Each structure stands twice: as C-alpha cells, then as structure tokens.
C-alpha cells in the first residue's frame, strides 16, 4: 500500500485516478480547492478508510506525508482557465513549486499532468516529444500554455538540481464519464446540447482537428508512467492518435444520440490550435502503453453518463 497524493483529485481525470488507486489498495489523499472539481465526483470514495479529502489550494504550501504525487490541480477547460488567467498561472507555477518542495521533503516521486498545449499551434504534425512547440506567449491561452511549460521547466530543474524523482506526461484531449456538463469542452458541450435538443455549437468551420482519448486509457498510462522503475522521466505524450475534425465529432455525437439538434457555427476563439495528434511511439516503447478504447465505444459510455443531466441544464 502506497500513500499517494492526487492534487485536483475531485476534477474530471482526478476522480477516475483516485478511484483506481484506492481500488488497487493504496491510501489516497485527494487535495482540491473545488474551483472546477465537484464533491459528487468523489462522494463514493469518502467513506473508504483508504481515502482522505483535503480542501486546499496548491498555491499555498502544505506539509503532509506521501510517497507519490500526481499533480493534476489546474483548470483544463479554456473558459475555466481563462476565467481568472492570473490565478491559472499561479496554480501552474507556484502550485508546482509547492508540490516539488513537498516531493523533495518526502523523497516522493512527482508526476506532472502537462499538456499537448505546450506544442501550441503546432507546425509539426503529428507532435512528438522532441518538438519545442509554437506557443503565443501573450494570448488568451498563454496563462495555461506558458504556465504548463514553466511547470515542465521547474520539474526538470528540480530533477537536475536536487535529484527529485519526476515524471512529465503531456496529456492530449481526454473525455469520458464524470466530466462536468458545464465544463465547456467540446465533448461535454456537444453531448449535452444533443441530449437537450439544443443547437450544437461548432467553433469556426469545424475543420480544426483533435485526437480524443478515453479517460480509462489515460489513467492506465499515468499509473504506468508513475511506477516505471527504469529511469524514464519523460516528457511523454499520452493520447489517442485517432485524429478527427471537430465537425466530425459533432456529427458522431448527433448520430450516436439520435438527436435532431442542428449544428451551428460560432466564431473560432483566438489561438485555437488548427491540428493536434500525438505521436505515441515513445509511450509504446518505454511503457508498452497505447489506448484501447475507440471513439465509438468511449462516446457511447460518455453519452450514457450524461443521460442523467438531460433537460436539467
Ligand atoms: P478539471 O478542471 O476537471 O480538474 C482540475 C481539478 O483541479 C479540479 O478539481 C479543480 O478544482 C482543481 N484545482 C484547480 N486549481 C486548483 C488549485 N489552485 N489548488 C487545488 N486544486 C485546484 O480538469 P481535468 O480535465 O481533470 O484535468 C486534470 C489535469 O490534467 C489538469 O492539470 C490539466 O491541465 C491536465 N490535462 C487535461 C486534459 C484533458 O483533456 N482533460 C488535457 C491535457 C492536460
Ligand atoms: N469547440 C467547439 N465547440 C464547443 C467547444 C469547443 O467547436 O462547444 C472546439 C474548440 O474551438 C477547439 C476544439 O473544439 O477547436 C476542442 O476544444 P476544447 O475546449 O475541448 O479543448 P482544447 O483542445 O481547445 O483545449
């Protein structure tokens, strides 16, 4: 049994990760400030003797015992991370500094949930880990993109300067049950709009691409990465390389829900990346990891979960 800290544990990916780690017999401390996280996502875990909830903001230092830290705390949806962009930057930079200090004190391994956003609007396709990216440092997405890039820098500097045992995972668009219906990301928006018979909002002409990974596949990858003992620290891409346009995703959701909603086109937000597809050969080689859940299966499970919110939001 390991003592594991999951920051952002009440968020979308975090609640799946906490559940899986508890199920495997670990003691999990879920730390969250509930900015985008929801109590109902971890309610089933609250009675477990192997689960503890700590309400805390990672921008403030904290002292606790742990052997592993998954640092997931950070809003991930563009409307949420742009709501208070200065706070997003603080969470990314001061937050990871606090978590790295905690890892150093405990001799713990720390995994940073980084992002495909470190590649910005990529000029190389698909993106592999050697690509340095094409990021606007002063745009509306910069608080997130540059915050995550600075966090990777701090991770590497703690590793080089203090020998901290680190893991960096660059997560590509992930979806699944227990996303907040009000989260604002494309998968949750399309599904809830389709179920409610509302217009499906496609930004721009919908020709921009994304590659969507089902959450169980991602969680499997995060755990494999954390527990590899051959000195593989990353950065490593994790995502599903099956690429599609946003318009195609909206059409899939329409067809799977049998909805009569119309697709409507809305302005493309600024700096919205044109293409995104992970090269996952490094994860395959180093961890034997690749996703197993295809988009049809994953969307069906997600739609099933969202049925409970039909006509309620
Ligand atoms: P989410 O917004 O659902 O979850 C983030 C969690 O962090 C929430 O519970 C929120 O309340 C908490 N949080 C935010 N700021 C905090 C702070 N200062 N202190 C403590 N808790 C704080 O997002 P998610 O989709 O679960 O993403 C989790 C992590 O994975 C994030 O770091 C995100 O950047 C990264 N990521 C996610 C995706 C994706 O597609 N889901 C893609 C790339 C990277
Ligand atoms: N998007 C869209 N309609 C929505 C929400 C998002 O067309 O209701 C687009 C968005 O402009 C982007 C893509 O879908 O091109 C993925 O957006 P999301 O916010 O899920 O994640 P991102 O990859 O931009 O961080």
Give the gist of this structure.
The protein is of the alpha/beta class. It has helices spanning 12-23, 78-83, 85-106, 142-162, 186-196, 215-226, 246-257, 281-287, 295-306, and strands at residues 3-7, 27-32, 51-55, 68-71, 109-115, 165-171, 174-175, 200-203, 209-211, 213-214, 236-238, 243-245, 263-266. The structure holds nicotinamide-adenine-dinucleotide and uridine-5'-diphosphate (UDP).
Fold blueprint:
Elements: E1 3-7, H1 12-23, E2 27-32, E3 51-55, E4 68-71, H2 78-83, H3 85-106, E5 109-115, H4 142-162, E6 165-171, E7 174-175, H5 186-196, E8 200-203, E9 209-211, E10 213-214, H6 215-226, E11 236-238, E12 243-245, H7 246-257, E13 263-266, H8 281-287, H9 295-306
Parallel strand pairs: 1-2, 1-4, 2-3, 4-5, 5-6, 6-11, 7-10, 8-13
Antiparallel strand pairs: 9-12
Bound molecules: nicotinamide-adenine-dinucleotide and uridine-5'-diphosphate.
The site of nicotinamide-adenine-dinucleotide has 28 residues, from helix 1, helix 3 and strand 5.
| CATH top-level class of the largest domain | Alpha Beta
Q: How far apart are the first and last residues' alpha carbons, in Å? A: 40 Å
The count of domains is 2
Helix content: 25-40%
CATH topology of the largest domain: Rossmann fold
Radius of gyration: 19 Å
Report on this structure.
It is a single chain. With 313 residues, the chain is an alpha/beta fold. It has two domains: 3-174 and 213-238, NAD(P)-binding Rossmann-like Domain (Rossmann fold, 3-Layer(aba) Sandwich), CATH 3.40.50; 177-210 and 241-276 and 293-309, UDP-galactose 4-epimerase, domain 1 (Alpha-Beta Complex), CATH 3.90.25.10. 37% of the residues lie in helices and 18% in strands. The protein contains nine helices and 13 strands. The chain has helices spanning 12-23, 78-83, 85-106, 142-162, 186-196, 215-226, 246-257, 281-287, 295-306, and strands at 3-7, 27-32, 51-55, 68-71, 109-115, 165-171, 174-175, 200-203, 209-211, 213-214, 236-238, 243-245, 263-266. A seven-stranded parallel sheet has the order 3-2-1-4-5-6-11, with helices on both faces. Strands 7-10 form a two-stranded parallel ribbon. Strands 8-13 form a two-stranded parallel ribbon. The chain is globular and about 55 Å long. The model has no long low-confidence stretch (mean pLDDT 97). Nicotinamide-adenine-dinucleotide is lined by residues 7-8, 10-14, 32-37, 57-59, 72-76, 91, 95, 113, 115, 171, 173-174. Nicotinamide-adenine-dinucleotide binds at residues 7-8, 10-14, 32-37, 57-59, 72-76, 91, 95, 113, 115, 171, 173-174.
